[in-house]
C-alpha cells in the first residue's frame, strides 16, 4: 500500500494510510459517531439504521479477528466497541446529540474504547511473544536432542577409531547447513589434537560421509581441546561462479580467494604476508590467478603488477578492455592491472622500479611513520600497496638459466626488503616439490599457501607444502579448482575457488576503474619514466600484434630472435652426421629433438672444422639446454643425454652407470641421486618400483600434460 504523507510548512506530517492506535482509534470512533448522530437528528434519519450499521461492523471485525487468530478477549473488545458506539448513536439520534449528557457519555465511551484497545494490544503482543518463545523452546529441545545424539555418536566413534576418549562440550551446526563442529575436551595424559587429525580418513569412512566430505581435527581454544569439523554436504562438487557483487575491498580487511567446505568465503590477509600458489596443469591454477587479480582490482588500496613470461597471458584479459585498437587508453577505463611485463627485459625494468619505490618510501615517509607510531607504512588509497604477481615465479627462482636466475634474485630482494613499505608478492608454481619449497625465503615469507590438486598426485607433496598439518590427502579435493589453503589465521584445509568468466573480468575492470587507487607521487618519482610510460602504444604493441615480438623497454628494443638453425643429432651418436639413409631410431630421435627445439629453442654450437676449412658456426643441437647447473659435471650431462635417448621405454640407474663407466667412471649410487633429483624437479618420471624401477624423460613420459 502506498503511504500518502502530507506536510504543511513546518507542521506535523500526516500519514493518511497509517493504522490507528488506541488514541487515534478512539477519536476516530467517537467523532464518527457524533457526526452521524448530528446528521441523523437534523435529517430525521431512522435510528435503527445506526444500530444496523454497528451490528454489521461488529460481525465484520469478528470475522477478521478470527482469521487473524486473535484471542477471545480481543474479539469481544472490538465487537463491543462497535455495538456500544452504534447504541450511543441510536440514542443520540432519538434524543439530541448536543446535550451535555450526550457529549459526556460520548467522551466516556471514547476513553473506554482507548483503554480497551490498549489492553487488548498489550495482551496480543504478550501472547505472540509467548508463542514465539514456545516455538523457539521446542526448536531448542529438538536441536538439543540432535546435538546430544551427535555428541554420543562421535564420542563412541573417536573411541573406536582413534582409541581416545573425549568429552564433547558443544556441537555447533553451521549456518550454511553443510555440516557441524564438535568442541571436545581431550583426556589427560598428554593426548594432543593431531592424534585425532591423523585418523581423518578413518573417521570419515566410519561416519559413512559422502565422497568429498571429511571429518578434520584442528586445535581448540587451548591445548587440551580439539575442534572436529564434520562436512556432511559436498559443496566442492558444485561449480560456483565468482560472486557478481563487485563491492570495494581492502587488503587490510582481507581478500576472498574461494570458499571452504562449510561454504564460507576464505579471506586472505596480505598486508605483511606473501603467497604461494601451486597447481599442475589442468588443476585450475590460471583461473585461480584471475580470482586473485579480481580481488586486487576490487581493493581500493592495492595496485597490481604482473610478470608472466608466457606471453603475458595472466594479465592480458585485465589490460585489453582498457586499450583501443591503436593501443591508446579508453576514456573512463583503466587497466585492471597497473603494469604487465611479458618479457625478461620488461620484467627487469619493473623489478628495478619496484626496488626503487621500496627504498624511496623508506626515506620519504619517515615523518608519516613517526606520526602513526609504527614501522609499517600505513597503506591507504592515497598510498596503495603494490602486489607483485609472478606467474610460475617459483620456476624462475629455481631455473638454471643465468638470465632467469638474475631475475629471480631481484624477486627475492623485493620479498626481503619491501614488506614494511607495502610491497608483497604472489608466486605460482606447477608443483609442491622440494625444489619449489627449497628456498628459505619462500618458506618463511609465503605464509599464505594454496595447493590446487584437481586429483593430481604427481609433484604434490602436501607435507612439505603444509608442514604440521597431518591428514591431508590429494584425493580429498579431486575437483578442478579445488585443493588446500592455509593462512596464518586458519590452518590448512580443503577449499575451492570460484570459476571466473571472461565477461566477469571485463565487468570488474570497468566497474572498478573509478575507485582503484593511483600510485602515490613519491613512488612515481622513484619509478621514473619506466612507470609513467608503461602504457605507451609502442610498449604495448605486442598485445595487439603477436608477431611484433617481445615487449620493448625504455632501454631499447629487445634483441631480435634468430631463426632456429637445423637440428644436428651427432651429439647423441658416434656416427657421422651425413648418412645415405636413416633408421627408424634416427627418425624417432630426430622428431623428438625437433619437439625439444620447438619448445626450448636451440643455440648454435660450433662443430670441429675440417682441415683447411675456415672455422664457422654450424647449425646443430647445443647440449647446454640440458644443463641443470652451470657447475654440473660432464658426467651428469651425459647421463641426461642417455636418459633422453632411452625413449619411451626409459632406463634405470644401472644401465646409465654402465653407459658412463668407460668414459666417466660414474657409480650407480651417483646416478640414483641424479634420477631422484630429476624426478622431484619434473625432468624425469619414475615408473614402477623395486627392481623394476625405470625412469623416462618427461618428453617421452605417457600422458604428460601440456605446459600451462
How many domains? 4
**Roughly how many Å apart are the termini?**
59 Å
Number of helices in the DSSP assignment: 22
Do you know the CATH topology of the largest domain? Rossmann fold
Q: Approximately what portion of the residues adopt beta-strand conformation?
A: 5-15%
Q: Flag low-confidence runs.
A: 1-5, 7-17, 555-585, 599-632, 704-708
Biggest sheet details: 10 strands, mixed
Integer average pLDDT: 79
Keywords:
Rossmann fold, 42% helix, disordered N terminus, elongated, alpha/beta, 708 residues, 10-stranded mixed sheet
3D structure, described in words:
This protein is elongated. The chain has 4 domains: 18-133, no CATH class; 164-233, no CATH class; 241-548, 3-Layer(aba) Sandwich (Rossmann fold); 619-708, Winged helix-like DNA-binding domain superfamily/Winged helix DNA-binding domain (Arc Repressor Mutant, subunit A), CATH 1.10.10. Helix content is 42%, strand content 12%. It is an alpha/beta fold and 708 residues long. Helix 3 (72-94) packs antiparallel against helix 4, helix 7 packs parallel to helix 15 (502-512) and helix 9 (344-364) runs parallel beside helix 12 (402-417). A hairpin with a 4-residue loop joins strand 7 and strand 8. The relative contact order is 0.07. The strands form 4 sheets. Strands 8-7-16-15-14-9-13-12-10-11 form a 10-stranded mixed sheet. Strands 3-4-6-5 form a 4-stranded antiparallel sheet. It has a two-stranded antiparallel sheet with strand order 1-2. It has helices spanning 22-43, 47-67, 72-94, 100-162, 194-197, 200-206, 285-298, 316-319, 344-364, 366-372, 393-397, 402-417, 440-445, 462-465, 502-512, 521-527, 529-532, 541-544, 584-600, 634-645, 653-661, 668-681; strands at residues 5-6, 14-15, 167-173, 179-185, 215-219, 225-231, 255-260, 265-268, 275-278, 302-307, 339-341, 385-390, 423-429, 448-452, 482-486, 493-496, 684-687, 694-697. It contains 22 helices and 18 strands. The longest helix is centred in the first third of the chain and has 63 residues, at 100-162.
Amino acid at each position: 500500500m502506498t503511504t500518502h504523507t502530507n506536510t504543511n510548512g513546518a507542521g506535523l506530517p500526516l500519514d493518511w494510510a497509517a493504522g490507528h492506535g488506541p488514541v487515534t482509534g478512539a477519536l476516530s470512533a467517537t467523532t464518527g459517531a457524533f457526526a452521524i448522530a448530528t446528521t441523523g437528528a437534523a435529517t430525521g434519519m431512522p435510528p435503527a439504521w445506526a444500530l444496523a450499521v454497528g451490528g454489521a461492523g461488529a460481525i465484520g471485525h469478528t470475522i477478521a479477528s478470527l482469521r487473524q487468530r486473535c484471542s477471545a478477549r480481543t474479539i469481544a473488545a472490538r465487537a463491543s466497541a462497535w455495538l456500544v458506539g452504534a447504541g450511543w448513536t441510536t440514542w443520540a439520534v432519538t434524543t439530541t446529540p448536543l446535550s451535555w449528557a450526550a457529549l459526556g457519555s460520548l467522551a466516556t465511551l471514547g476513553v473506554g474504547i482507548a483503554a480497551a484497545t490498549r489492553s487488548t494490544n498489550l495482551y496480543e503482543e504478550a501472547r505472540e511473544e509467548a508463542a514465539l518463545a514456545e516455538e523457539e523452546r521446542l526448536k531448542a529441545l529438538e536441536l538439543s536432542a540432535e546435538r546430544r545424539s551427535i555428541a554420543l555418536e562421535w564420542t563412541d566413534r573417536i573411541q573406536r577409531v582413534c582409541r581416545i576418549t573425549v568429552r564433547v562440550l558443544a556441537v555447533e551446526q553451521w549456518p550454511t547447513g553443510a555440516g557441524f563442529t564438535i568442541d571436545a575436551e581431550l583426556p589427560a595424559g598428554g593426548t594432543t589434537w593431531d592424534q585425532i587429525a591423523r585418523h581423518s580418513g578413518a573417521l570419515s569412512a566410519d561416519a559413512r560421509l559422502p565422497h568429498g566430505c571429511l571429518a578434520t581435527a584442528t586445535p581448540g581454544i587451548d591445548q587440551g581441546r580439539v575442534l572436529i569439523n564434520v562436512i556432511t554436504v559436498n559443496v566442492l562438487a558444485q561449480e560456483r561462479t565468482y560472486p557478481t557483487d563487485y563491492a570495494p575491498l581492502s587488503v587490510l580487511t582481507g581478500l576472498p580467494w574461494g570458499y571452504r567446505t562449510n561454504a564460507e568465503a576464505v579471506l586472505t590477509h596480505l598486508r605483511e604476508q606473501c603467497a604461494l600458489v601451486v597447481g599442475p596443469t589442468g588443476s585450475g591454477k590460471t583461473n585461480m590467478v584471475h580470482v586473485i587479480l579480481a580481488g586486487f582490482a576490487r581493493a581500493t588500496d592495492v595496485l597490481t603488477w604482473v610478470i608472466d613470461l608466457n606471453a603475458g597471458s595472466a594479465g592480458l584479459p585485465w589490460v585489453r578492455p582498457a586499450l583501443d585498437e591503436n593501443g591508446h587508453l579508453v576514456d573512463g577505463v583503466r587497466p585492471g592491472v597497473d603494469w604487465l611485463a611479458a618479457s625478461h627485459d620488461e620484467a627487469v625494468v619493473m623489478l628495478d622500479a619496484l626496488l626503487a619505490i621500496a627504498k624511496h618510501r623508506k626515506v620519504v615517509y619517515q615523518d608519516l611513520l613517526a606520526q602513526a607510531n609504527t614501522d609499517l607504512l600505513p597503506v591507504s588509497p592515497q598510498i596503495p600497496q603494490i602486489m607483485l604477481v609472478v606467474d610460475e615465479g617459483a620456476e624462475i627462482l629455481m631455473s638454471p638459466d643465468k638470465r632467469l636466475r638474475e631475475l629471480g634474485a631481484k624477486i627475492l630482494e623485493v620479498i626481503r626488503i619491501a614488506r614494511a613499505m607495502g610491497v608483497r608478492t604472489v608466486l605460482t608454481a606447477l608443483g609442491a616439490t622440494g625444489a619449489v619449497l627449497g628456498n628459505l625465503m619462500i618458506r618463511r615469507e609465503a605464509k599464505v599457501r594454496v595447493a590446487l590438486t584437481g586429483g593430481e598426485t604427481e609433484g604434490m607433496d602436501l607435507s612439505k607444502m603444509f608442514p604440521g598439518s597431518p591428514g591431508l590427502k590429494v584425493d580429498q579435493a579431486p575437483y578442478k579448482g579445488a585443493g588446500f589453503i592455509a593462512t596464518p589465521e586458519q590452518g590448512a584445509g580443503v577449499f575451492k575457488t570460484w570459476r571466473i568468466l571472461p565477461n566477469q573480468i571485463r565487468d570488474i575492470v570497468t566497474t572498478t576503474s573509478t575507485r582503484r587507487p593511483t600510485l602515490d607521487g613519491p613512488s612515481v618519482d622513484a619509478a621514473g619514466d619506466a612507470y609513467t610510460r608503461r602504457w605507451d602504444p609502442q610498449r604495448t604493441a605486442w598485445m595487439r600484434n603477436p608477431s611484433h615480438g617481445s615487449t620493448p623497454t625504455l632501454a631499447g628494443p629487445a634483441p631480435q630472435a634468430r631463426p632456429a638453425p637445423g637440428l644436428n643429432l651427432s651429439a647423441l651418436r658416434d656416427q657421422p652426421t651425413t648418412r645415405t639413409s636413416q633408421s627408424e631410431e634416427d627418425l624417432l630421435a630426430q622428431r623428438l629433438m625437433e619437439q625439444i627445439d620447438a619448445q626450448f629453442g636451440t643455440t648454435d654450437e660450433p662443430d670441429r672444422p675440417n682441415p683447411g676449412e675456415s672455422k664457422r658456426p654450424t647449425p646443430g643441437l647445443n647440449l647446454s639446454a640440458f644443463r641443470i647447473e652451470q657447475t654440473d659435471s660432464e658426467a651428469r650431462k651425459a647421463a641426461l643425454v642417455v636418459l633422453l635417448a632411452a625413449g619411451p621405454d626409459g632406463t634405470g640407474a644401472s644401465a646409465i652407470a654402465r653407459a658412463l663407466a668407460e668414459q666417466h667412471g660414474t657409480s650407480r649410487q651417483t646416478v640414483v641421486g641424479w634420477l631422484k633429483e630429476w624426478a622431484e624437479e619434473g625432468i624425469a618420471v619414475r615408473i614402477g618400483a623395486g627392481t623394476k624401477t625405470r625412469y623416462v624423460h618427461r618428453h617421452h613420459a605417457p600422458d604428460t600434460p601440456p605446459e600451462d
